[in-house]
Amino acid sequence: MITVESLTRRYGATAVVDDVSLDIERNSITAIVGTSGSGKSTLVRMINRLVEPSSGRVLIDGKDTRSEPAHLLRRRIGYVIQGNGLFPHRTVAQNIATVPRLLKWDARRIAGRVRELLEVFQLDPARYAEAFPHQLSGGQQQRVGVARALAAEPVVLLMDEPFGALDPIIRDKAQEDLLAIQRRFGTTIVLVTHDMEEAFRLADHVAVMSAGKVLQYDRPAVLLTRPADPFVARLTGLADRAMRLLSLVTAGEAALPGAAEGPTLAASLSLREALSQLLWCGAQSARVVDEDGAVRGQLTVAAILARGRP
Amino acid sequence: MTVRALSGARPLGSGVPRVDPLGAVLVAAGAAALFLLPFVVFKANRIVPGEARALSEVLPAWAALGCDAALSLAAVAALWMSDARLRLAFALLGVVGVALAAAAAGNVLTPPGNVVVRIAPGGAFWALMVCLALLATDAATRLRPGPGLRVLFLGATLAVAWLALRHGTFDHLSVMREYAVNSVRFARELRQHLKLAFGSLGAALLVGLPLGVLCHRVPRLSRGILGTLNVIQTIPAIALFGILMAPLGALAAAVPLADRLGIRGIGAAPAVVALFLYSLLPIVANTVAGLKRVSRAAVEAAHGMGMTDWQVLTGVELLLALPVILTGIRVVLVQNIGMVTVAALIGGGGLGAFVFQGIGQTAIDLVLLGAIPIVVLAFTAALALDALVEGLDRVKAQSP
Q1: Which CATH superfamily hosts domain A2-238?
Q2: Is the pLDDT of residue B1 over 80?
Q3: Is A91 on the interface with B (CB under 8 A)?
Q4: Domain A244-307 grouped into CATH 4.10.91.10
């Protein structure tokens, strides 16, 4: 749905983004990872033309992004940045209503959408709609930032280190929420992060960038099992990669038929978490059950370990 | 002394009230002035030196007693009362007492039908007024009133003063005598004064705001522009008027239209231009400082959501910088109201005309006729804009 074609951005002689081409699938989450200065932010900012490319082009649904004025393009693309960038002089409701107002939606439609988003993000409208951003906690501000980006029902959501300023517990919740939101609205999300854990947890595809180039663009499991070069291997975590690989598969997916002895594991747990639990109780096998309690099958330590190899 | 001696022996506050240090200084100063300086000065006409008169000499016994009582209460409040509301109330009572005593002295000392004598408030009057005003200001500060309350108080004070003046309470005092003679001209010069002060502020806003935005956007220009404005600020007002006379005079000579519009080497034009130039630095510098304070993330998000440059500037950046910009406007307005006074020297008019005419004629009352309204205007502008800035900051911090 988003096609990036030989995109390059030069500042003077240095190419911050150097001839990058990507195809981003509809309804997927794509993470762009890399060290700082690798050009990942610039790449994303070229999609909504906050940075104009030196050469190359971006197509959204086959349409060149330069075929309309930049500010009109941006109203169709959600944008979330680190530190949320909420307007301190406007209420939460006014902040969320920013893009719908730019698009001149009628007042009733705006009010309805604001209400819906507040509820989706677990912010009681009666309590928070008229509050000012500084009256909210960091996690709440971050949610309002995402709600604001989603207000005008954009097909694409760009997120530039959206969870960077949050503490680990709130970040965990924010990531969970983002997955739920993505399932609910089917938005195509492009996420910049330097946190590999985050990328692996959220993304369907990961692009690894270094010095302006995309070194590898693939599914997370492929990145781990067949890294394109030593840098990718190092970035994805050489020492940790078996555990990372386990974290990409759920217990439900890995469960084998047959009844088993031992403790009960939720099907939604990752194999990494499942292994941890088995180690903790010293068991060799466990029963995997669904949310509604139905037994999915059995899972043995040996089966889990087998999944941790390429 | 007693208090000190006792305070060592037992805890304070047990029956022996502590003496307020500021109150002690003010009471001492006020009392000294009252005994050493004349309360009013009687002059046979506006130019001759006057004869000093004490309060007790000129007032009927009951009036002198009333004024003394008001002053005594204010002194007691200043020395021993810790409740700021009582301190404020008694200070204001003192102000009213002193003002009415002066007015009464004027009425008593002026022979019926005589418009030549001048009864001028003397040193004791002014010293007492200053002490009481300081006492009142101190008390008001301790109360920490909100911006709305401050404006209300300012309005009420001005209204009371206005009513007293309209009613003719002070008509026999020298300044009001000068007003009676000059009332038509006073209205004209007051209008001119305000026109010059606000006109140059308006022009400075029209030029200074865009210039400030430019400095913010193009940091390379910032140093040059602010440096130039800084240099202008250091030129004394009179010198700047002088510098402007030659080019504006030449312009008037060369372009008849300019001359007909009143743009000449002397008069209002050089005054407005000079004030405009002085006003630019605070406006530009505060606009830059205000814009710098705006959260970068908010501006970035605004662009990212598809606001146009103009929408980001007016809807986010300038709006968030407004309190700082208003602080600059306050500086400029107070500065202009004061500096317009000097414009009278080059024929620009304004209340300064009375000041300089009075100095020329050694008629201090005429000087006061110009100076007092200038002080009141500057004070009012400062208070009103301070309240506005604070009010804006509060709106932002308000709970729903």
Answers
A1: P-loop containing nucleotide triphosphate hydrolases (3.40.50.300)
A2: no
A3: yes
A4: no
Domain ranges of chain A: 2-238, 244-307
Q: Which amino acid is at A217?
A: Y
Which class would CATH give B179-397?
Answer: mainly alpha
Tokens of B228: 């130039």
pTM greater than the 0.90 cutoff: no
Q: What whole-number distance in Å separates Cα of residue B206 and Cα of residue B327?
A: 16
B-interface mutation test, from A81, A127, A153, most B Cβ less than 10 A away: A81
Interface test with A, best of B294, B296, B299, B305 (most A CBs within 10 A): B305
Print pLDDT tens along chain A (310 aa): 899 999 999 998 899 999 999 999 999 999 999 988 899 999 999 999 999 999 999 999 999 999 999 999 999 999 999 888 999 989 999 999 999 999 999 999 999 999 999 998 889 999 999 999 999 988 899 999 999 999 999 989 999 998 887 888 888 888 988 998 898 888 999 999 988 888 988 999 999 999 999 999 999 888 888 888 898 888 887 778 888 888 888 888 888 887 777 888 888 888 988 999 888 888 888 888 888 888 888 888 888 888 888 7
Distances (CA, A) of B37 to A93, B51, B52, B67: 65, 12, 8, 16
Q: Where are the domains of chain B?
A: 15-144, 179-397
- Quick check: A88 contacting B, CB < 8 Å? yes
- Give the distance from residue A81's alpha carbon to the nearest chain B alpha carbon, in angstroms: 7
Q: Taking a C-beta distance cutoff of 8 angstroms, is the pair B304, A44 a contact?
A: no
Angular region, B15: left φ>0, alpha ψ -120 to 50, beta rest:
left
Q: Where are the beta strands (DSSP E) in B22-147?
A: 40-43, 51-53, 118-121
d(CA B22, CA B80): 11
HEC string of B163-179 equals: HHHHHCCCCCEHHHHHH
**Interhelix angle for B61-80 vs B84-109, to 10°?**
160
- Per-residue pLDDT tens for B85-117? 888 888 888 898 888 888 888 888 888 777 778
Rounded CA separation A269/A260 (Å):
18
- Give me the total of CB pairs closer than 8 Å, taking one residue from chain A and one from chain B: 73
